[in-house]
Amino acid sequence: MTKKSQEGLTVKKEENFSEWYSEIIQKAELADLRYKVKGFLVFQPWAVLSMEKMYNYMEKALRKKGHKPYWFPTVIPKSNFEKESAHIKGFSPEVFWVTKGGDKNLEEDLALRPTSETAFYQMFSLWIRSYKDLPFKTYQRANVFRYETKATRPFLRSREFHWIETHCVHATAEDAEKQVKEDMGTTKEVLHDIYGLPFIFFERPSWDKFAGAYKTFATDVLNPDGRVVQQPSTHIISPNFTKAFNINYEDKDGKEKQAFTTCYGPAISRIFASIITVHGDNKGLKFPWEIAPVNVVIIPIQDDKKIKDKAESLKKEIEKFADVEIDYSEKSPGEKFNHWEMKGVPIRIDLGMKDLKEKKITLFRRDLDKKEMVNEKEAVKRVKEISEEFTKNLIKKADSLFKDKIKDAKNLPEVKKIINEEGIARVHFCSVEKIGEKCAEIIEKETGAQVRGTRLDEQQKSNGKCAICGKEAHNIVYIARAY
Ligand SMILES: [Zn+2]
């Protein structure tokens, strides 16, 4: 990186969010954008280390719920891809095709997977025989490729991204619905309680479904600029799709029945974008404790044997429960402080001669941006205590900001006002079925925002009138601008 990367941020998050985002990615050394293929980026260690931890938490949560890991090929035969018409129609503008091996044309064109339903389903039809095989729950950690035509942004939208996709087969429609609820629970457990991201889990309106889905559910996280980012989504796949792939099973009564499938897609690299934007501030990144690349950094203030010994012995103790580093670089202490604040390390320990003589140690905690003096003997215990409350503090702050952004609107001018103030509007709405699409189009035209759907976690029935057309409202929906 250039020398400049050591300086602090020059743009304020609340003043120019977009510039702030670009700058923090470069200065915290998360990604290098100078790779020579548009929409592709080089993930740097500081991002990879965190994302590895993110993967682990998400995969562990999935395995606990009975998902088994697979690694499928990156390429999908064209004939698989063409089996289901809605899917191919929705995805074909975004597919990268492999057509040659060396200088020979391939027998069949191969898609670089944009998502893997058509890869898994071909195997499901071979593997699933009886009701005893169900539910059949899988997942894989994978990178997927989409020829995005919208403007790309690092982590948020690129042409290759890193995600987890789960693919499940169920005996009944009710089991598929249950899986959606389970996925919502997983999102809460991991996205909120570990990554610290507040969200709403929506059922999308009927006009806004995944290509090939019967129902689509999705998580929206709010960016500080008032736009929502779609995070993990869950789909109940259309029966046409399962039919096209012959995913059948023999039921208890001996009859052959068609199975139901669901999928869930937490995109780790995209969620990482939300972690940067939701928690970061004008000094740099802030990582929840569990997914910080390094949890504790020790800064020796002077080059001294006693300090070095102390640093090493602290490291040894803290290493038992956290990732810790000592910064022996030749930068000045001030430069080191700024550097690690930019990097979002949860706790910094400053070791100086004066403190050591008094048997004291200075801790700096990034959750509250506060310094603490502790007794030398208490230092490790205190680090442990802070580690247990650290993420909770980030969550508290993020939750309260999120709650304040959701406001009720009674009519289109009120929706407009809330959207312009970077919020999410909640309104009575005629219908999330096809007949409501007209009202959604009026909203989009007038405000640039979209109907994101109805909440799945709270059954909200409307007894009012549609904020747009004034007809009887059947739903309460949320409206926001989206990326
Ligand atoms: Zn309406």
List the helices and strands and how they pair.
Blueprint: H1 17-27, E1 31-32, E2 42-43, H2 45-64, E3 68-69, E4 75-77, H3 78-81, H4 85-91, E5 96-101, E6 104-112, H5 117-127, E7 136-145, E8 160-170, H6 173-192, E9 200-203, E10 213-222, E11 227-237, H7 239-244, E12 248-250, E13 256-258, E14 260-264, H8 268-279, E15 296-300, H9 305-318, E16 324-326, H10 333-343, E17 347-351, H11 353-357, E18 360-365, E19 370-375, H12 379-405, E20 406-408, H13 412-420, E21 424-429, H14 437-447, E22 450-455, E23 475-482
Parallel strand pairs: 3-7, 11-23, 15-16, 15-17, 20-21
Antiparallel strand pairs: 1-2, 4-6, 5-6, 7-8, 8-14, 9-10, 9-22, 10-11, 11-14, 12-13, 17-18, 18-19, 21-23, 22-23
The structure holds zinc ion.
Zinc ion is lined by residues 430, 436, 439, 466, 468-469, 471.
Q: Which features does this protein show?
A:
483 residues; alpha+beta; 5-stranded mixed beta sheet; binds zinc ion
